[in-house]
């Protein structure tokens, strides 16, 4: 069994069941404050001098940029200096939220040329991640780059090269990889809680207009308040100003990456972190545009099937991913890791382990045999498998994150910790591309109606 130490597993099971065969279902609070979590920020108790302050800027102050900035500023010793955005209303809002002292600009290069800015949060639409990310690294800035790391497969290696060459901290913003909840699943998996893994299923469903990316348009949106040409840059076709494309960019392949780049990517990064996996070697997807026919050119339902090859950290297994933006049951998101002896589910902030061993006695199906043969069969069966109290019901255990736990705060703590102490981040550019790669290939498979083979080690289409 790969990655499976029999002693660890026995210890874990003992702990899990407390020695009883049928365990009850106690809920164990997960403790925020594991090493590296924001509650244990290494410099939290230290006095931070002006010289030690990390000065940041945010490029792209939309929904995520503002959220990321607010989170980053909760870390001691971090100061916001500037923001760049292409819609004037967001620059006004940034001053309302973060104070009049910050610089606001439409031109992000004015931020990159400032010597007093150490790090940038990059939260523009996906099509500009590689352009701005690479320029920022070249300008000597640490970069917290929102997911997906890149918009196109071809951009992945350039971003990795730029991050390596700069020697600056580069973290991709899939915050789940810093979550204490995912850390618990990783610990359980490694302790052998479910035996040998064979299948994972993950879903991320929604049932609202906002969830399906029909974001509100500001009443003053116009070519005067929006810098349309900078938005297109040389990364998207030159077309006339279109507020829908600017404010609802996710709905168009020219700027976004569909449900796969937007949401599958979180699922890939989460499970790669848990399994120490480099990714799948075969990708196939299907789906369709079922409901949100608002001019978008991406599907609103997508299902993916992925083959993961055996590696040192996990056996070969199959994965299914699903996003459904028209989920009449109300939506929701969850993971299920299935192994020979049990399953781990992750729903919201709760991890549940459920274990059921395969019975030794195989059971029988003899009702179609003549009566005499049934009797003969049963006699030898009962002799071979005498009735023993077996673990007949699954035993269950739950772990729960503290109320209000915020994995993004831990992810930022990890980013700034790396800048201060020169430690490794959880999600560097290679990790980021190994999550973005299969997500982007999911789109390739969908649009080209083909199966895509991927080399997860070399990060290349085969
Ligand atoms: N980690 C997460 O959970 C998470 C959640 C949501 C979004 N995201 C990612 O964050 C990024 C932004 O998403 P969002 O929902 O905030 O979108 P958004 O449309 O709300 O914000 C994007 C902002 O970028 C600005 N922008 C565009 N081009 C720019 C440029 N050249 N210079 C400066 N600003 C520019 C736009 O004006 C807009 O305000 C996306 O890559 C998205 O995938 C991550």
Automatic annotation (TrEMBL):
Keywords carried by this UniProt record: Oxidoreductase
EC number: 1.1.1.369
InterPro entries linked to this entry: Gfo/Idh/MocA-like_OxRdtase_N, Gfo/Idh/MocA_oxidrdct_glycsds, NAD(P)-bd_dom_sf, TAT_signal
GO MF annotation terms: nucleotide binding; oxidoreductase activity
Family annotation (Pfam families): GFO_IDH_MocA
Transmembrane annotation, as ranges: none
Keyword Oxidoreductase: yes
Domain Gfo/Idh/MocA-like oxidoreductase N-terminal intervals: 54-173
UniProt protein name: Inositol 2-dehydrogenase/D-chiro-inositol 3-dehydrogenase
Species in which this protein is naturally found: Dyadobacter helix
Gene symbol of the encoding locus: iolG_11
